[in-house]
């Protein structure tokens, strides 16, 4: 133990954690699957349509608009696409109560394994 540290500084609640252990993994500010899908769409556009000035402009416009929107959404929640995909399995509206003859609701895991 160094003499300039006190016992209060060695408190177990204040152990420093490196930022790479708690920050999400992002590619160019978006989730990796989103970045891969963006790249695949632009590559498919260039391969299928061909490399022309209009195609390059359309690909640049697509990357600029979609990537900026996804980066803004990712800034708010780094797992926004996973949350959105999980929400697609839920109903838009649930009845306020079940009938007396209704069985128990099916239990699904809250986290995919």
General description of the model:
This protein is an all-alpha fold and 113 residues long. The chain has a domain at 24-84. It contains 3 helices and no strands. The protein has helices at residues 32-49, 53-76, 80-87. The radius of gyration is 24 Å and the shape is flat. It starts with 31 loop residues before the first helix and ends in a 26-residue tail after the last helix.
Separation, N- and C-terminal Cα atoms: 42 Å
Mean pLDDT: 84
Total beta-strand segments = 0
3D shape: flat
- What sequence of helices (H) and strands (E) makes up the elements? HHH
Q: Which residue ranges are poorly predicted, with pLDDT under 50 across at least 5 consecutive positions?
A: none
Overall helicity: 40-55%
If helices are DSSP runs of H or I spanning 4 or more residues, what is the number of helices? 3
Strand content: under 5%
The radius of gyration over CA amounts to 24 Å
Give me the secondary-structure category: mainly alpha
Give the biggest sheet: none
């Amino acid at each position: 133990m160094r003499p300039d540290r006190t016992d209060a500084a060695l408190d177990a609640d204040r152990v420093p954690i490196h930022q790479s252990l708690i920050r999400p993994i992002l590619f160019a500010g978006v989730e990796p699957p989103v970045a891969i899908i963006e790249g695949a769409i632009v590559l498919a556009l260039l391969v299928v349509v061909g490399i022309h000035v209009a195609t390059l402009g359309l690909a640049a416009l697509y990357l600029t608009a979609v990537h900026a929107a996804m980066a803004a959404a990712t800034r708010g929640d780094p797992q926004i696409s996973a949350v959105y995909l999980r929400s697609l399995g839920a109903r838009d509206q649930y009845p306020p109560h079940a009938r007396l003859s209704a069985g128990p609701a099916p239990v699904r895991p809250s986290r995919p394994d």
